[in-house]
C-alpha cells in the first residue's frame, strides 16, 4: 500500500468524529429553539393524537430521534426525556429513553474509539509516571468508575461516552454500565415528563431541579457510594481481585 493510501486511510479514521462534531455544531445553533418546553407545549395535542393513531411508529421514531440526539450530541436530550414520559408514561417512557440513550451512546463511543481510542490507548500505555498510573488505576476499577460517571449528575453525558472510548473500555462493559447507570436519572426525568399534561394545563414550567431534592438526590448518592465501595475496600485491604 502506498504512502498516499496510508494517509487517506488514516484520515478516514477521523471522519466519524468530524461528522459528529460538525452536526453537533450546526445543531447547537439551528435546533436549540425547537427543542424547548414551548415547542412541546404548543404541539402536545398533535403529538398525543399521532401517538394514539400510530403507537408503534411513534415509539420507533421517538427512540430513533433520541439515538440521533445522543450520538451527535445535539441539544434537547432533557426535553426528549421529558417527552418520553409525556407520550408513553413513566414505565414505558423510561424504557424508551434508556434504550435510545444507550444506543446513541454506543454510536458515539464506537466513533470515538475508531478515530482516537486506539492511538490514545497506545500513547498512555507507552507513557511513564503519573499518566501510566492513572490509566492503570482506571483499568483496575473499570466497573466502579463506569457506573460512577453515569450516576453522578455533574458528569456531562457526552463526556461519559467519550472517556471510556479513549481508555479502551470493552464494549460490553460500556453498554451494561450505560444502560443500568442512567436508569435512576432517566426514571426521575421521565416521571416529571409523565406529569407535563397537568403542568402545561396550569401554565407552568416543570421543575427540573427535582433531581437535587433530598428524597431524589440521596438515593442517587447512595448508588454512587455503592459504585465506589469496591475501590475503597480494595484501597484498605490491598486486594486487587475485588474489582476487575
Structure characterization notes:
The protein is mainly alpha-helical. The chain has helices at residues 3-12, 15-30, 37-42, 44-53, 55-71, 77-126, 130-140, 142-151, 157-166, 171-181, 183-194, 196-201, 214-237. It has 13 helices and no strands. Helix 4 (44-53) packs across helix 5 (55-71), helix 5 (55-71) packs across helix 6 and helix 6 runs antiparallel to helix 11. Mean pLDDT is 78; it is low at 4-8.
Helical fraction: over 70%
Radius of gyration from the alpha-carbon trace, in angstroms: 20 Å
Determine the number of helices (DSSP H or I, runs of at least 4 residues): 13
Structural class: mainly alpha
Question: Can you count the beta strands?
Answer: 0
What portion of residues belong to β-strands? under 5%
How would you state the average pLDDT, rounded?
78
Order of helices and strands: HHHHHHHHHHHHH
Shape: globular
Unreliable parts? 4-8
Largest sheet: none
Intertermini distance: 40 Å
Amino acid at each position: 500500500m502506498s504512502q498516499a493510501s496510508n494517509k487517506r486511510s488514516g484520515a478516514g479514521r477521523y471522519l466519524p468524529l468530524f461528522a459528529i462534531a460538525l452536526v453537533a455544531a450546526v445543531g447547537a445553533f439551528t435546533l436549540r429553539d425547537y427543542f424547548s418546553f414551548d415547542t412541546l407545549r404548543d404541539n402536545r395535542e398533535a403529538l398525543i393524537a399521532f401517538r394514539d393513531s400510530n403507537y408503534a411508529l411513534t415509539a420507533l421514531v421517538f427512540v430513533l430521534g433520541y439515538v440521533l440526539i445522543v450520538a451527535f450530541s445535539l441539544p434537547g436530550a432533557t426535553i426528549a426525556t421529558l417527552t418520553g414520559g409525556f407520550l408513553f408514561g413513566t414505565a414505558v417512557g423510561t424504557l424508551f429513553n434508556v434504550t435510545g440513550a444507550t444506543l446513541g451512546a454506543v454510536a458515539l463511543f464506537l466513533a470515538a474509539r475508531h478515530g482516537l481510542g486506539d492511538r490514545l490507548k497506545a500513547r498512555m500505555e507507552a507513557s511513564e509516571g503519573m499518566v501510566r498510573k492513572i490509566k492503570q488505576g482506571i483499568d483496575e476499577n473499570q466497573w466502579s468508575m463506569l457506573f460512577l460517571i453515569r450516576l453522578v449528575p455533574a458528569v456531562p453525558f457526552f463526556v461519559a461516552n467519550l472517556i471510556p472510548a479513549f481508555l479502551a473500555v470493552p464494549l460490553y462493559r460500556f453498554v451494561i454500565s450505560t444502560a443500568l447507570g442512567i436508569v435512576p436519572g432517566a426514571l426521575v426525568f421521565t416521571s416529571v415528563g409523565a406529569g407535563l399534561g397537568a403542568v402545561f394545563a396550569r401554565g407552568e414550567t416543570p421543575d427540573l431541579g427535582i433531581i437535587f431534592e433530598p428524597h431524589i438526590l440521596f438515593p442517587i448518592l447512595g448508588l454512587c457510594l455503592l459504585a465506589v465501595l469496591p475501590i475503597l475496600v480494595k484501597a484498605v485491604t490491598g486486594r486487587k481481585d475485588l474489582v476487575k
